[in-house]
Amino acid sequence: MRSWRGVFLLILTRAVCEALYPGPDEGWQVYTSVADVEGKCVCTVVAPAQTPCSRDPRNRQLRHLTERVQNVTQSMELLDLRTSRDLQYVRDSEPLVRGVEARVRTANSNPRSLSPKGFQDLKRSVSQLLPLLPVLQQYRADAALLLDLKEEVRNLSLALATIQEELGAYDYEELQHRVITLQTRLQSCMNKLGCGRLTGISNPMTVRASGSRFGSWMMDAIIPSSDNRVWSMDGYFKGRRVLEYRTMGDFIKGQNFVVHILPYPWAGTGHVVYNGSLYYNKHQSNVVVQYHLRQRRVLLQRSLAEAGYNNTFPYSWGGWSDIDLMADETGLWAAHSSLARGGSLTLSRLDPGTLEVLRSWDTGFPKRSAGEAFLICGTLYVTNSHLAGAKVHFAYHTSTGSYEYADVAFHNQYAHLSMLDYNPRERALYAWNNGHQVLYNVTLFHVVHGGGGGGGPGEA
Ligand SMILES: *[C@@H]1O[C@H](CO)[C@@H](O)[C@H](O)[C@H]1NC(C)=O
Ligand SMILES: *[C@@H]1O[C@H](CO)[C@@H](O)[C@H](O)[C@H]1NC(C)=O
Ligand SMILES: *[C@@H]1O[C@H](CO)[C@@H](O)[C@H](O)[C@H]1NC(C)=O
Ligand SMILES: *[C@@H]1O[C@H](CO)[C@@H](O)[C@H](O)[C@H]1NC(C)=O
Ligand SMILES: *[C@@H]1O[C@H](CO)[C@@H](O)[C@H](O)[C@H]1NC(C)=O
């Protein structure tokens, strides 16, 4: 690119330099800028191309395309990271299956080596394990698809680099079409690989120790990943101060933050940031408030009809945690309960634009006995305690309206959880653990059997 751009050294007075400072929109870029001994400003400016090419509208379109390919590449890297993590899980379970299968085959050819009871046991474990095989195959197919996409992006990047050198040599429309197709395919690939059943929670990673024993911290659940802001809301009772950090790095160091003072105080720790807005439960009410974080104002508030509040149906740790707002890959949700529901944990899907309840599910799980709850791919996971030894032990699938008991252990390192939420964008669990801000990775598995949940490819 440099080759068809002129490089100029300009020496001007400071005032003129600033006045002439050309915007990047015009293709000008200030390369370096220093003040010399006489106080003059020295700017090295990379001027836009002086060739007719720069006026070619395709030039701008090309830059746009290049950026999109870069974006796709970034998403791809993210996806690759996730897939390899899940793939490890698959690799770990595959020998198990094969091992059992081999034992059966041996036993089959030499029946006398096994007692009848042992034989039946083995047969049963095989039939339990067999559904894993198509899952493994699916994973291999997914990984292969990813490799395909990667190669395509590489090809496209090459094509773009070529076209930048000899503009016009390529069919622009064709190139654009390929980029769009690629984006669509990547999107569906990501959605497919992103969803599944929770099978594992990693060791915790303590990001920071800050605030009181109870609180909430989060990143946006769906906004594009270039927005790395982190929010922290200390306390559960009548709080109004929201700290906004520019990046996770800033949050870790406790620097570069701005403060939002909410017009209405909050209750509990069940807040969520979704698509640029903070959704929270207004103190001493069942009103859900939508506060826009850039516009710094309340956009909406609406009562969550029927939902109990004021510490009537909190999680097991109390703390006015009656209403727990959360997000997953599929949208915005609220977990709550009421007398009418007999204290049963109820999950409602909310319209993020109006806060209306679109649909509710009664999970049958007593809300006051739940430690915390979070949602992944339309399945609600409930922990049995907020104290040491807590584990995920109940799962409710909104896709089928059915529940099952689960047994997914995790390390509750500081022994008091007042918030546990899944962030679909980061694919991680965010926890407030006794004044520590903690992250967990999750392993999600495609579902092939047993009552749905998730929307994995094996379900159909
Ligand atoms: C690339 O991604 C960034 C951040 O997500 C976004 O602001 C930008 O508009 C995207 N560019 C294109 C061309 O899609
Ligand atoms: C990428 O380019 C190579 C070499 O030109 C070609 O063989 C391959 O099929 C291309 N891959 C895709 C996915 O278009
Ligand atoms: C997020 O907000 C933007 C406007 O701010 C809107 O266009 C978009 O539809 C929203 N996305 C979702 C998933 O609600
Ligand atoms: C909420 O509970 C407090 C006591 O904890 C009580 O004083 C207050 O009146 C209650 N508010 C509502 C709206 O029920
Ligand atoms: C989650 O996985 C990513 C990628 O392997 C890793 O960089 C990150 O540290 C992990 N986080 C936790 C909390 O384990």
Describe this structure in words.
The protein has 460 residues and is an alpha+beta fold. It has three domains: 2-54; 56-194, no CATH class; 199-459, Lipocalin. Helix content is 30%, strand content 34%. It contains six helices and 24 strands. It has helices at residues 14-20, 57-109, 116-129, 132-165, 172-194, 248-253, and strands at 7-12, 29-35, 41-46, 197-201, 205-209, 215-219, 230-234, 237-245, 257-267, 272-274, 277-281, 287-292, 297-303, 324-328, 331-336, 344-350, 357-366, 373-376, 379-383, 391-397, 402-409, 417-423, 428-433, 436-445. Strands 4, 5, 22, 23 and 24 form a five-stranded antiparallel beta sheet that branches. A four-stranded antiparallel beta sheet has the order 6-7-8-9. A hairpin with a 5-residue loop joins strand 2 and strand 3. The radius of gyration is 27 Å and the shape is globular. This is Noelin-2-like isoform X2. Residues 194-446 form the Olfactomedin-like domain. InterPro entries: Noelin_dom, Olfac-like_dom, Olfactomedin-like_domain. Residues 146-192 form a coiled coil. Keywords: Coiled coil, Disulfide bond, Glycoprotein, Secreted, Signal, Synapse.
Annotation keywords:
alpha+beta; 24 strands; four-stranded antiparallel β-sheet; five-stranded antiparallel β-sheet; 30% helix; Lipocalin; 6 helices; 460 residues; binds 2-acetamido-2-deoxy-beta-D-glucopyranose; 3 domains; disordered N terminus
